[in-house]
Amino acid sequence: MDMRPRSHPTYLAFVVHRVSGLLLALFLPLHFWALGTAISGEARLDGFLRWAENPLAKAAETILVILLAAHLAGGLRVLALEFLGWRSRQKDMVAASAGIALLVGLVFLLNVV
Amino acid sequence: MSATRQPASTKGVNRSHRTRARAQTHLWVVQRVTAMLLALAVVVHLVMIVTAVRGGLSAAEILSRTRGNEAWLAFYVTFALAAGLHGAIGLRNIASEAIGLRGRGADLAWLTAGLLTAGFGIRAAIGLYA
Amino acid sequence: MAEAASLTVSVWRGAEQGSFARFEVPARANQTVLDVVTYIQRELDPSLAYRFACRVGMCGSCAMTVNGRARWTCRTHVRKVVDADGALELRPLANLPVIRDLAADLAPFFDKWSRARGTFQPKDAPDGAVPEDFAVVPPASKQRREADAGIECIGCAVCYASCDVVAWNDEYLGPAALNRAWTLVNDVRDGGRAERLDAVAGDAGCHSCHSTQSCTERCPKNLDPSSAIAGLKRALFWDTLLGRR
User: Fold this and answer.
1) pLDDT (0 to 100) of residue B7
2) What does the cofactor section's free text say about binding (chain A) (predicted)?
3) Which CATH class is domain C6-104?
4) pLDDT at A112
5) What is the mean pLDDT of residues A58-72?
6) B120 contacts in chain A (CB < 8 Å)
7) Regions in chain C scoring below 50 on pLDDT
8) A85 part of contact set with chain C, CB < 8 Å
9) Please, are residues B104 and B111 in contact by the beta-carbon 8 Å criterion?
10) Whose CA is closest to C35, among C70, C75, C65, C1?
11) Domain ranges (residues) in chain C
């Protein structure tokens, strides 16, 4: 794809929003199904949580938390534009979105590790 | 190219276009309303995640918070419903633009997928409550 | 920046299928991209097809894809877009059928303009009659300011060529048509609001916009079609929720 016409910050914000949304939407049924199955008893839930302690699951969790934060922040950008009619502060919004996503990811990492 | 082009009608938006457009508008409205709900719910969820993982997760700790608590049940049921629908409509938009999957049948299929996903989420929420 | 003595210009030749032809064009001070195209057509290859009229940024007919981005060639200085080795790449506008070489067919663009109800429908004077009195529209009113924000569009299709949603969905009306619809929705003298909102709703209309804001980024007149589309979404949102449609 030719990136020359697509190199502005709001385009990047769209790409991040779309990719994170796609991944989250695909993960969601899995998340719900696994939780629903695990929650059938305390012992079973503990077993699931212990399984989730492995480094691969932890890394996946961190990525999901960052995706969720990024999608939330990008969604606030879209809602502000559509419902509050924000115009000129769009670029600031993109930067703020990135900041929020990064921050949440870092806080999560610090807590987990 | 221009010889085969249909001239755009300027009088009376045709009926089937209007019906289709209204159904599509409703999907968009559902996606934005769920987005607003999710904006709040996801903040709560993220705060829960980063505080709950402090010192490791245990089933007892999670269940002690949620068992018999109607407020958490209502929160998670609403959250699951909103997330299921929001995600499915998002996937619908991506599929229509990326692979040209469009039409009423596809829309109904996506809505079903969304409600099914929400159903799994509600099952999990009930598991936390009961 | 040191300027090369000559420019290496790759020019699209052909229709949908075609290839780039290369031309060496002498570099000049204050040269516009349109000057370069005109030089090629007059001095190097008279068979080159392109379109222009006013040469001063009023008519909007000379828009092309210059080094990957849609621009008015008459208002684009070569030195602003050319890289250090003096390379220029010219294509017809994207997202439109190509007639030949650098001339795109704007018919679908204008068709969508009328499909979005881009025509003023006087409320007080149906059938084109002259109203009895002047309409009083305070310039500072909120609606008039919304209309004014988008009214200067001259239909050059730069936004349309820059919009990915147009590329992904044939039916999508595009930024210019939707921007026009929003100026009319805000025109208190217009009586076509309900029909116009119907025409711009749904997947072919404002609801497919993803706010990439390429239109706003590229508009040579610094208009903000992205915000106009957001306005249409907002109007349709409340009309739908409150059962006004």
Assistant:
1) 45
2) The heme is bound between the two transmembrane subunits.
3) alpha beta
4) 64
5) 89
6) 29, 32-33, 36
7) 1
8) yes
9) no
10) C75
11) 6-104, 107-241
Torsion angle defined by CA atoms of residues B59, B64, B67 and B72, in that order, rounded to the nearest 10 degrees: -100
This prediction has a pTM of 0.91
Tell me if C214 and A83 make a contact (CB, 8 A cut-off).
no
**Domains of chain B by start residue, with CATH:** 18-129 (1.20.1300)
State the complex-level ipTM.
0.89
Interface of A with B in 30-89 (CB under 8 A): 32-33, 35-36, 39-40, 42-43, 45-46, 49, 52, 65, 68-69, 72, 75-76, 78-79, 82-83
Contact list in A for residue C211 (CB cut-off 8 A) is 10, 14, 77-78, 81-82
- 3-state per-residue secondary structure call for chain B: CCCCCCCCCCCCCCHHHHHHHHHHHHHHHHHHHHHHHHHHHHHHHHHHHHHHCCCCCCHHHHHHHHCCCHHHHHHHHHHHHHHHHHHHHHHHHHHHHHCCCCCHHHHHHHHHHHHHHHHHHHHHHHHHHC
Predicted confidence at residue A102, as pLDDT, reads 77
Q: What is the mean pLDDT of chain C?
A: 94
Q: Which pLDDT value is given to residue C159? A: 98
Residues of C in Cβ contact (< 8 Å) with A5: 68-70, 94, 162, 214, 218
Please report which confidence band the pLDDT of residue B13 belongs to, taking 50, 70 and 90 as the band edges. low
For residue C86, the SS3 value is coil
Contact B112, B105 (CB under 8 A): no
Looking at the structure, give the CATH architecture of the domain made up of residues A4-112. Answer: Up-down Bundle (1.20)
A71 is in an annotated binding site: yes
> Pick the residue with more confidence: C65 or A47?
C65
Give the CATH architecture of domain C107-241: Orthogonal Bundle (1.10)
